What does this fold into?
Amino acid sequence: MDAMVAFDPRSSRTAQPVPKVSRPGSWALPRSRKTGFDLAWPYLWSAAAVGLAAGVGLALTSLVRLPNISMVFLLAVLFSAARFGIWPALVSSGLSFLAYNFFFIEPLHTFAVTQPHELLSLFVLLAAAILTSTIAGRARDQAQLAAEREVASQRLYRFARRLSALADPQSVIDHAVIQAHGDLRRPCVILLPEQGRLAMSAAWPPEDHLNPEVLAAADLALMQGEPVGAGTALCPTVPWLFLPLRTPEGATGVIGIALPDDAPVDPEARVMFETVAELTATALERARLGQEISAARTAAEAERIRNTLLASISHDFRTPLASILGAATSLIEYGARLPEPARRDLLVQVKDEAEHLDGMVRNLLAMTRLEAGALELNRDWVDLQELFDRAVAVAKRRGASETFDVAVEEGLPFVFADPNLLDQVLANVVGNAIQHAGSGDRITLQARRDGEMVVLSVTDNGPGIAREVLPRIFEKFARAPRPSGDAGEGTGLGLAIVKGIVEAHHGTVAAISPVSQVQGTRIEIRLPLPQGNS
It folds into this structure.
């Protein structure tokens, strides 16, 4: 029992929605069967044109004597040739010959010719009619062929434009099978190599089956890189025509159309099918290269970030570690001989530098959780006055020499947020302000209500942030030249973490610089107030 390979539109990659493509007309398709009347009506119209010419000739000769009325019949021949082609025009030529002889050559109403010059004019009319019909018919056929080729070229151009906008290989082959089916009115499939064998990647109409003989022909087309199937030298008995999708690196797959009832593809349709195959192969190669470039860029960016992070950590961890190591060494070697105030200063130094390191580690962990989408919010009611007081206390404990002003609008409701994450946000923003400001400058922490939002701002009167740095201040590793800079404890992550945490609370953050007198920086954080506090 032969195994059957079935294509199920609801399975594998083709389960995705198929793009909608307008159904174009045929290029050079198998003609639909015509009735006897459809085949006869051009000849009937040609006969009617000759009859009309005879009537016009009779009317003219009854009014005025004309030496030669044959030109009227040439008009009928030209009409048939221009409208219906060569064969109806030849019929019109013969009928004109007979009608001219019957109605206008003596003796009238017979087909006999008595005068030699009349016989000559009669045959001149026949020769002129045949020559005219042939030339006009060929001109009509050539014009019609040129119009069909122009339509086909426009359709191919639109198809190429659609393919050029697609970056996904699956979308490319989906468009290709729909285009080929719409143009050739035949079932179309595309098979691509998968795990060492050809597999159905797209088909239109979706309900399609390929038996082993057809699959063998498709494999042969892929291996030989040549057309295989009906109308070719390879497997001519297979009722399919497969073309390889050629790229500079070789055939990447095959595209095939079914040829039922031994109906061959005419040359025009064959050329168009080959063009579709070439455009599809080019688009697939471009999509593959685009994916490789994207993957290379992603890998390069990941490598750059990793190197930047390692360099930043190795540099910024070295200073507090050196301070801790030096203080611990002094306590071990000279602890008993040091006075109590000196020992306490060394211990405070160890504690401060350890907190410094802890802050950097927490920022790194927070950024990792943000990028992984694993940041969890343990919400609780937060008093903004207490939030500001804790941030100022932490800054002073770490040696901040600036003056802090805290202003919380009276009657401001609590915020429903994660207290620990908001503490980290304020610590980073205040640290950023300390780096911007100089020793002894003033830093203002303010909270106010703005509609359904609460606005937390931290303002310093330092030199401000350079204009070229300001748009990037919330990006990872964005670090302004000192004395201004990021607050990520030296890693360039502080404000990026602030942005991530605030957005996780459905809020926004912005930097404004300068604030006044061409100096100062303000970081504004907007958080939504809980419903029911209107």
Notes: The chain has eleven helices and 14 strands.
